[in-house]
Design brief:
It is a single chain. The two termini are 18 Å apart. The relative contact order is 0.15. By secondary structure, this protein is α/β, with parallel strands linked by helices. A 9-stranded mixed sheet has the order 3-4-7-6-5-8-9-13-10. It has a single domain, classed as Rossmann fold (3-Layer(aba) Sandwich). Strand 6, helix 3 and strand 7 form a beta-alpha-beta unit. Bound molecules: S-adenosylmethionine (SAM) and zinc ion. The site of zinc ion has 8 residues, from loops.
Length: 320
């Protein structure tokens, strides 16, 4: 079901009939030799997370979030005994709960670093990866045969690619007829009862973010953005035979400290809009800002917590 990187014919891992043996590093099949990221030039550009790596997961590294388990249940049901492609799987937030359910998975990402983190998480969480094929792949040119998978998810990646239409064409191509492209979005959940005041948290996050970009823009460095305005629904409605939606209820409150997720990611240059910021400039600016913020908001300002309510999960299933 894979496509040989050398002769471009269908192959089964590990060796193609043309004689090419797909390299296997650290448990990851190297099915693409495309760069980790392409940020300039006239061709298709994308932001792979090789540099972001450890900064991505924050304190969520060694947990499976309830929302991901709920979504995984739906994917497992849709996939049945077939194959689920987790495209741009990142640290495996969906692959891992699906693997726990026993689903057959191809987990692909352009970043070996992110795939390595997925493996670390699996080991730490004691989730066997027997049913998971980990591979380095480019979403713009998926190395899978036509009509070879039953479900695809491509979560939080289309905005990182300058040509998201091409990725959707690829997803459509690799799906079997009747197969499902599953999109997961937040839906309004339980209304906040106003008992929590998060204004101080937001004030700090907004100030930190705005002041960071003000300092960088003075040096001619701007946030990087691709495809934010891409209208997935219109493109998918044209491409797929049908669309159905449903909402999974996800109720309850959660608490997250600045030091849990936002700060490690922000300080680790882990937001995709930070991708063009040179490392030394980022370090100098964040050091300055952290000092200023400790003076302004107190030494332990990073322990400030946000208390929120979970959003429900909107599942959109496009059928080929
Ligand atoms: C924001 S993360 C999302 C990860 C995961 N799907 C999730 O929902 O948490 C984006 C992922 O897309 C990957 N990525 C970016 N461009 C890609 C491409 N052209 N092909 C495959 N993966 C890509 C990055 O390496 C990164 O792991
Ligand atoms: Zn071959």
């Amino acid at each position: 079901m894979f496509i040989c990187p050398k002769c471009h014919n269908s192959m089964t891992l590990p060796v193609c009939s043309c004689g090419y043996a797909v390299p296997f590093f650290n448990g990851i099949w190297q099915l693409s030799d495309a760069p980790d990221a392409v940020k300039t030039g006239d061709g298709d550009r994308y932001i792979g997370y090789e540099e972001i790596g450890e900064a991505y997961s924050g304190s969520r590294k060694y947990i499976i979030e309830e929302a991901d388990s709920l979504a995984a249940r739906e994917i497992t049901e849709l996939t049945g005994k077939g194959v689920f492609l987790d495209l741009a799987c990142g640290d495996g937030c969906l692959t891992l709960p699906c693997a726990k359910n026993g689903t057959g998975i191809i987990a692909g990402d352009i970043s070996n670093k992110m795939l390595g983190i997925l493996k670390d998480r699996a080991q730490h969480l004691n989730i066997p990866l027997d049913n998971v094929t980990l591979c380095r792949i480019n979403a713009l040119n998926i190395p899978l045969s036509d009509e070879s998978v039953d479900t695809v998810v491509a979560n939080s990646v289309l905005h990182l690619i300058s040509n998201p239409q091409k990725v959707l064409d690829e997803i459509h191509r690799v799906l079997k007829t009747g197969g499902a492209f599953v999109c997961l979005d937040d839906a309004p959940g339980e209304q906040d009862d106003g008992s929590e005041d998060n204004s101080h948290y937001f004030e700090i996050v907004n100030n930190l973010y705005n002041e960071y970009w003000e300092l960088l823009e003075r040096q001619g460095i701007y946030p990087k953005k691709y495809s934010w305005n891409f209208d997935r629904e219109t493109v998918c409605d044209k491409l797929f035979a049908s669309r159905e939606t449903r909402v999974i209820r996800h109720r309850g409150k959660y608490k997250t400290k600045l030091s849990d997720h936002f700060l490690p990611r922000f300080l680790g240059c882990g937001f995709s809009d930070q991708t063009d910021v040179p490392k030394e400039v980022h370090e100098a600016v964040t050091e300055l800002l952290m000092k200023a913020f400790r003076g302004r908001y107190g030494e332990d300002f990073d322990s400030l917590a946000y208390i929120g309510r979970y959003s429900d999960i909107l599942i959109t299933v496009y059928r080929k």
